[in-house]
Amino acid sequence: MDSVTKKGSSEEPFVELKTISPRVSESLNLSHVNTEYTGDDGGHDPKEALLSQDSDIEAQKGQVTEKPASTVPLEYGVPLRTKLFYLSTYLLLNLTLTIHSKLLFAQFKFPFLLTAFHTGATSIGCCMLTLGGYIKPSNLSLRDNMIIVAFSMLCTINIAISNVSLALVSVAFHQIIRSIAPVFTVVVYKLWFGREYSRATWISCIPITVGVSMVAYGELDFTAIGFALTLLGVVLAVTKSVVTNRLMTGSLALPPLEILLRISPLAAFQSLVYAMVTGEGAGFKKFVDDGQLTTGWVIALVTNSSIAFLLNISSFQTNKVTGALTITVCGNLKQILTVLLGILIFNVKIGAINGLGMAVAIVGGAYYSKVELNNKQAKKVPSPSS
Question: Which pTM value belongs to this model?
């Protein structure tokens, strides 16, 4: 996918450096310049003026060290306050949906069907926003539409692999493997887009990964195929996050709501197919026939799906303004907050290693934030002087 972003984007400042073309200065033969000058010249030889100008041009060339604005990632041009707002909203909605879904799964054991409800609600919500004029679909080529279809399949397969792998390994092992997602994100950006991250960024991912692994430490039960599928799930999740960011900041530059409008119906259909294949359709029919789908359950499912709709919007927008790596790190830190809330709400017991891991991960998150802030300051392109 083309990684070149649009210059005209309002989020990315564009700086145009205007200098005299070197060919112009090279074409001036100083030996042909009349060396006679008068007092009107201010007492300065025109040769010296031209030489001085030429030297200044060379000096200017040496001083321009910043990257052009078009090569600076979008997230480094977003104000810190804006990033914090989107990240906090994303975390709040993510934690709310996680806890609410956990409560539902105690009796409603249909994960693919619930995913279909989530994507279906998102599809309905986006259609309503389109009718209200808040979403204006772009005219996409056949190739672009095929990319959207492939992306929707990636999203659904990611969920499927995650659920299947979780059935083959312990929860602790599953979380430990998924904690290395930030490292995979850096590698994917390096291999696919040639993007370089500073050494400090690499180092800052280590305490977060180690801390989350310590928090998840427990009964490490897994099979060879379970390990392979869990690792594949991490790669798919990271790829999904990176591709999401590129769809919004790359050559397509689609708004988050438009992407949701296009992929939600496809993802809902694919989730329904998975639900039928895995037997969830028959299980849900029995759930209804037994009279368990009460008004309270309907309200709970509608509420859960509505939260998912808001989370989907928040997730895509947060990915756009903060970058795929930051939102992946944020996902790791969400696990820490989930454990903390689990202690408060579900009376979850943790050991000394788990508690130490929480502290390590939190410190790592703070260090990562500092590193990214420094990176933003280092890569910020100065405004052109008036």
Answer: 0.70
